[in-house]
Structures are given as C-alpha cells and as structure tokens.
Amino acid sequence: MGLYYNQLHRFFENQTRHKEKISSFLRILSMDSNPVKTSILQSIIKNGFPDKVVKLPFKPVFASCKNHQVPLKDVLTDLKSDDVFATIAGDFIEFRSKEKQNQYLETAARQENNQGSLPPLMNQMGSLAGLQQMAQQQMAQMDPGQIQEIREKVENMSDEEKVEILKMISNLNPPEKE
Q1: What does the pLDDT look like over 64-91, one tens digit per residue?
Q2: Alpha carbon of 53 to those of 47, 85, 86, 100, 135: distances in Å?
Q3: How far apart are the C-alpha atoms of 19 and 70, rounded to whole Å?
Q4: CA-CA distance, 37 to 43, in Å (whole number)?
Q5: Longest pairwise C-alpha distance within the chain
Q6: Which residues pair with 86 in a beta bridge?
Q7: Whole-angstrom Cα distance, residue 41 to residue 97?
Q8: Spatial CB neighbours of 9, under 8 Å, sequence gap ≥ 6
C-alpha cells in the first residue's frame, strides 16, 4: 500500500509542476504581441512541451516568420528568454525546456570529452551527424534571408559541384597525433 501511495503522490506532484509550467507559458502567450512566437508556443504545448522535446517543421515556421516580417533568429531569441530553447535540426526545429536543454548540453559535453585530443572543429566534423550538427548551429545564428540565399545556391549547383563538395568533405583527415 505504501508503494502505491508514493507512486500516486509523485504522479500528482508531477502533474502540479506540469500545470504550473503550462500556466506560465499561457501567461506569456496572453502578453505577447508576436504572432509567430505565440503560434510556436501553442503548437509545442499542444505537442507535449515542456515535458517532451518537440519538433516543428522548419519550412512552415520560416514561412510564418517571412509572412509576418519577423526574422526567425529574433523569434528564437525571444523564446530563449522564456526558457524555450530551439535548435535547427535538418528540416525541423527542436524545442526544449530548460531542463531538457541542460540534459542535451551535458550529453554533448560528455561526447566531446570522449573524442580525444582532436581540435573541436575536427571533433564535430568527425562524422556526418557531427557535420550536420555544426551546420545547424551555424544556421541558427543566421537570419531567414541568409538561410534562403544558401538554400538557393545549393539548389542551383550542378550535380558535379555537389559531388565535388562531398569529395572535399570526405577527404578531410583529422591531424595525426604526435
């Protein structure tokens, strides 16, 4: 009976904390004049935020920013000030609560420590996933116009140019240890 009581007690504590977090986000929604930020918050809450890492498709979020003439970078910065951390991951934007972001950063730091003595840039580029993560971090710092410009350049490249870039990336060798 005691075990059941403890589990039930923890469940209700978690529900109370969850309701408090959602209430604070709803207060933010009611005070905010940025429709893109409001829409993102509504979507991520509906999909389980703050308890879950929520992914939203990049293109519709970017299009909404463009339609409202608000740089994506500014929207993500505003969200960060409300403890909503965003990372561009391929065709998605991942949204994390402060707790989930801390867990994510701790895991990334542990992985970086396990990489040995390679320079940080080479550690990130050590795998395709690392290269993708590095590119996503750089894209998160760009405004929508810059991202669109890069996208157009890549789309206008010939197949030969794309193959040449892939060859250059695959030929990057980490420096030899002394």
Answers
A1: 999 999 999 999 998 988 889 998 888 8
A2: 9, 10, 10, 7, 20
A3: 30
A4: 10
A5: 69
A6: 95
A7: 12
A8: none
CB-CB neighbours of 87 under 10 Å: 19
SS3 (DSSP) at 102: helix
User: pLDDT tens digits, residue range 129-156?
Assistant: 666 777 777 888 888 888 888 888 888 8
Give DSSP secondary structure letters for 22-40. HHHHHHHHHH---HHHHHH
pLDDT in tens, 97-126: 888 888 888 887 777 666 554 445 454 455
> d(Cα 39, Cα 34) in Å, to the nearest integer?
9
Mark residue 157 as left, alpha or beta (left: phi above 0; alpha: psi -120 to 50; beta: remaining): beta
How many Cα atoms within 13 Å fall on the side-chain side of residue 5? 2
Amino acid, single-letter form, for residue 102? N
Checking 125-128 for CB contacts under 8 A at 24+ apart, the result is 125/169, 125/172, 126/174
Query: Judging by beta carbons within 10 Å of its beta carbon (0-12, 13-18, 19+), is residue 81 exposed, middle or buried?
Result: exposed
The reported pTM is 0.49
Q: Strands 84-89 and 54-57: what pairing? A: unpaired
Q: How many residues does the chain have?
A: 178
